[in-house]
Amino acid sequence: MDIVYAAEKPSIAKLLSIHTKRRVRPQDIMVTENPDETGSFFIGFQFNQYVLSPNGEIEANE
């Protein structure tokens, strides 16, 4: 399990790079808190939207 502290954009970008199998820079993403779940964040990346859950999993927000 990957652990991300305080929604740090570099950590999220690294996880997203692994998930998408391409380089993602911290400045390429927008991170906002998810009001539906404590410790969860919405991640805006190009045309796709992803959700980071409190356990460190990144999934497409469909």
Provide structural commentary:
This protein is α+β, with helices and mostly antiparallel strands and 62 residues long. It has 1 helix and 4 strands; from the N terminus they run H-E-E-E-E. The protein has one helix at residues 9-20; strands spanning 29-33, 41-45, 48-52, 58-60. A 4-stranded antiparallel β-sheet has the order 1-2-3-4, with helices on one face. The mean pLDDT is 79.
Question: Approximately how much helix is present in the residues?
Answer: 10-25%
How far apart are the first and last residues' alpha carbons, in Å? 23 Å
| Rg from Cα | 10 Å
Number of helices: 1
Keywords:
62 residues; alpha+beta; 19% helix; globular
What's the quick description here?
The protein is an alpha+beta fold.
What does the secondary structure layout of this molecule look like, with pairings?
Blueprint: H1 9-20, E1 29-33, E2 41-45, E3 48-52, E4 58-60
